[in-house]
Design goal:
Layout (H helix, E strand, L loop, with lengths): L2 H4 L13 H8 L4 H21 L8 H13 L11 H17 L8 H16 L15 H9 L6 H15 L4 H5 L7 E3 L2 E8 L4 E8 L8 H14 L21 E3 L2 E3 L8 H14 L9 H13 L4 H8 L6 H7 L14
Antiparallel strand pairs: 1-2, 2-3, 4-5
Helix pairs in contact: 3-5, 4-6, 5-6, 7-11, 8-10, 8-12, 12-13
Length: 345
């Protein structure tokens, strides 16, 4: 019998649980998508423990090993496959942060992470989904031009989609950052626009300078100005810049589900809706692969690095921290043929 098998679960210590207000304040420090995912992960863990008659809190190392092993073998209803390794890592984070929020000792996760490592290795060997991290395609300038060519830019929805593509690219935004911009926030100047953008990972605003482009068709300044002017002509002088528009050109048309109104009353697009626009335009342009809102951010970082821009300038334009390790991973997606070390051998 191993030491792990001999170890008995400890009784929960007397703790002072955080008030609902304090828990809400802690949760507010995370992005909306993370809060939703954590809430679902925690509910699933607690339900599993209840079904097995296990005490969920504080979680023992043995309990987490059992739970993660269960997740690696249980198909999810939505996909028909067990959770991906990245989802399991997020689940562990959801459980450990739940302990911190309730003033409970942080659980030992080494055993569970060993299970995840072995699971990821086996997926990679078997060439199954989850064994290799799935990245979105980078929207480089040639791809942007083809996507823009699919738009009717005389229509309001065409103006919106063009501005979304070009502003999302030139400011290297996440989808949630892009849709959070209000119509009165971009400040026009002689050189272009200064746009104040709230960077969700940095939890602070940055000022992104958006200059004129060489070609009118791909100029973010002209596209942004065209949208703002059209929105004002339609009577929208405040509120979100990127809004729902139906095929008749109506702004913020009502949406209903089971007889109840849904969606932001102001018409502000969700981050998923913005990603859907990128995906739709990529399909219209005949592209294969995975195209989402993050394709614009990846495209900016890759193109800027290839163009010789200093890393610190790339980071500050796109809201990365100086010397960001995550930004360095974007550079790994560079052209595999450019300066290939095999050439000339």
């Amino acid at each position: 019998m191993t030491e792990l098998e001999r170890r008995e679960p400890t009784a929960p210590p007397a703790t002072r649980q955080l008030s609902p207000e304090a828990q809400a304040a802690l949760a507010a420090g995370r992005a909306d998508s993370t809060r939703r995912a954590y809430r679902e992960d925690r509910a699933a863990f607690l339900a599993w423990c209840k079904e097995r008659g296990e005490q969920p809190l504080p979680a023992t190392q043995e309990l987490l090993v059992e739970y993660v092993t269960h997740l690696t073998r249980t198909p999810r209803p939505r996909t028909g496959r067990p959770s991906a390794p990245s989802s399991l890592e997020r689940t562990l984070s959801a459980i450990t942060t739940m302990h911190a929020e309730l003033s409970l000792p942080k659980p030992e996760t080494k055993g569970a992470r060993t299970v995840i490592a072995g699971y990821k290795h086996q997926l990679a060997v078997d060439k199954k989904p989850g064994g290799k991290q799935r990245q979105v395609n980078a929207a480089l300038p040639p791809a942007l031009r083809k996507m823009l060519d699919t738009l009717d830019r005389d229509t309001l929805i065409g103006k919106r989609d063009a501005a979304m593509l070009l502003l999302g690219y030139s400011a290297a935004t996440r989808s949630s950052e892009l849709v959070s911009i209000d119509i009165g926030e971009p400040a026009e100047c002689d050189e272009g626009y200064l746009v104040s953008i709230y960077r969700v990972k940095m939890k602070k605003f940055t000022e992104s300078a958006i200059p004129y482009g060489k070609s009118p068709a791909t100029c973010p300044v002209r596209a942004l100005r065209a949208l703002i002017v059209a929105m004002r002509e339609a009577g929208r002088t405040e509120g979100p810049l990127f809004v729902r528009i139906d095929r008749h050109g109506r702004i913020a048309p009502p949406m209903m589900r089971r007889g109840k109104p849904i969606g932001d009353p102001s018409g502000r697009l969700t981050a998923d809706a913005a990603s859907d626009v990128v995906e739709r335009l990529a399909e219209a342009a005949g592209f294969e692969g995975r195209w989402r809102g993050h394709s614009l951010r990846r495209g900016f970082a890759t193109a800027a690095q290839r163009g010789g821009a200093p890393m610190v300038r790339i980071a500050r334009q796109g809201g990365w921290t100086d010397n960001s390790t995550s930004l360095a991973r974007y550079f790994d997606e560079g052209d595999p043929w450019e300066d290939n070390p095999v050439m000339g051998l």
